[in-house]
Amino acid sequence: MFHRFDLYAQVHKGIRLALSGLCFQAGSADCSDDEKVLAFAEEFRRIVVILESHSRDEDAHLNESYEKFAPDTLHQLEEEHSGLELKLGELVALVDQLENTKQDPVGRQNAWYQVGKALNRFTADYLIHLQREEGPGMTALWEHLTDGELKVLSQKIRSSIPPQTMAIFMYYIIPAISHAERVEMLGEMKLYAPKEAYAGVLGLAESRLDAANWGRLQAALEEVKAEGMSL
For position 3, what pLDDT does the model report? Predict the structure, then answer.
């Protein structure tokens, strides 16, 4: 239902970008390159923060609606959450091992191989889970909640996310969404968010977009006025 409000759309685009980027790094980097291995491990840990937050926020703010309107879907999603949390924990342990093999080239090579394979399996499972949320999950919410009610839920989720975690989400969401989505999201921030928060997201957008898309976004945001937004 492209004409309905989809509370999963933007965050899922960001998560897909984050995980695909990690898989690319794991597949393309030479494990003997300490700088690239360290960069991978650091980015992996940042992404773990948003994956854990995403699951926790859904449980806190969406489970009540799922329990009321789609209990079977909730049961399936909760089972998947539990399985993914277990697999993520195993992946974290593998990355810990990887970081402890700097002085052991053979151990580093083996750990890098194990991390890459486990990450690919986790990503495949996670992407299926995202589709389940966007498919049966979102369909159930659309059938029983208005767009206004969905936006209230979305706002509650966003408001519950600590600023540092939100910055990580935005790091991946901004380049992953369309121009129109960026204008809508940042336009709302321009109108309603604290100036410091808006300025911070603008700086992040500038760092994450190429010159053409950044210039296009700037021009569109200049047209955002209190009475509405021009896309």
Answer: 83
Given phi > 0 = left and psi -120 to 50 = alpha, else beta, which region is 70? beta
Single-letter residue type at 9: A
Same domain, 32 and 129: yes
129 located within any domain: yes
Q: Are residues 139 and 83 in the same domain?
A: yes
Q: How many CB atoms lie within 10 A of CB 51?
A: 18
Residue closest to 66 by CA, chosen among 10, 132, 13:
132
Contact in structure between 140 and 66 (CB atoms under 8 Å): yes
144 found inside a domain: yes
Determine contact, residues 193/158, Cβ cutoff 8 Å.
no
Locate 176 and state its tokens.
Answer: 């992953």
DSSP 161: S
**Residue 63 identity:** N
Domain hosting residue 15, numbered range: 9-162+172-177
∠ CA 53-57-58, rounded to 5°: 120
> Percent helix, strand, coil in the chain (nearest 5)?
85, 0, 15
pLDDT tens-digit map of 130-187: 999 999 999 999 999 999 999 999 999 999 999 999 999 999 999 999 999 999 999 9
Q: DSSP secondary structure string, 11-32?
A: HHHHHHHHHHHHHHHHHHS-TT
Taking a C-beta distance cutoff of 8 angstroms, is the pair 199, 190 a contact? Answer: no
Yes or no: say if 104 and 171 are a contact pair by the CB < 8 Å rule.
no
